[in-house]
Amino acid sequence: MIDAAPGPATPLEAFRAALDALTATFTDDRRDVGARLRPVIAGNTELQERSALKRAKLAEAVTDALHKRGVSEPTASLAAELGIRAFCDAFDQWADPAGKQTLTELTRHTLDELRAALVALGWSSSTRTCPPGLVHQGSSTRTSGGGGVGRAPGVGVDQGERGLGLFDLGQMAELGG
User: Fold this and answer.
1) What CATH number is attached to the domain comprising 43?
2) Is 152 within the bounds of a domain?
3) Alpha-carbon torsion (81, 64, 58, 102), positive or negative
4) Euclidean distance between CA atoms 106 and 170, whole angstroms
5) How confident is the model over 113-163, as pLDDT tens digits?
6) What is the pLDDT of residues 46-97, one digit of tens each?
7) How many domains does the chain fold into?
8) Domain, as residue range, for 121
9) Within a 13 Å sphere around the CA of 157, how many CA atoms are in the beta-carbon half?
């Protein structure tokens, strides 16, 4: 799905398009399953660990797909982590049976909030200023210098309760290809 994004799309735009396609498959009947699944995962350490592993594997797959689009580190892994976090946070909200918004709407909103957080950290696309170590080039951000900083995992057992058990890793891996 990421590889189908238009060439000039930024890494987050490419991932957003893939997330839109994926989240459109989450219908209201799946919302009920998610609501029942959340407390089960939250109450079971092994399920939390499994969910965290799925999240890490998904971030790896998305990072790889962004690398294939020519996105370098740490931009690819940061975009992957932001998109995954947006999805997981939105899923938590969506799984609330009282919720009325679609998962697509919630994921878009959450991703927008995370982008706003980047601005609060000092990054601005309008002024083309970036945090130290990143150089903004056209519509994508690249690592300055040689080596890149590597990927911060951003995955902990405490994040595993986000409901990732509702879908399988194969379905999510389609985001990358």
Assistant:
1) 1.10.357
2) no
3) positive
4) 23
5) 998 998 898 866 554 444 444 333 333 333 333 333 333 333 322 333 333
6) 999 999 999 999 999 999 999 999 999 999 999 999 999 999 999 999 998 8
7) 1
8) 9-147+157-176
9) 8
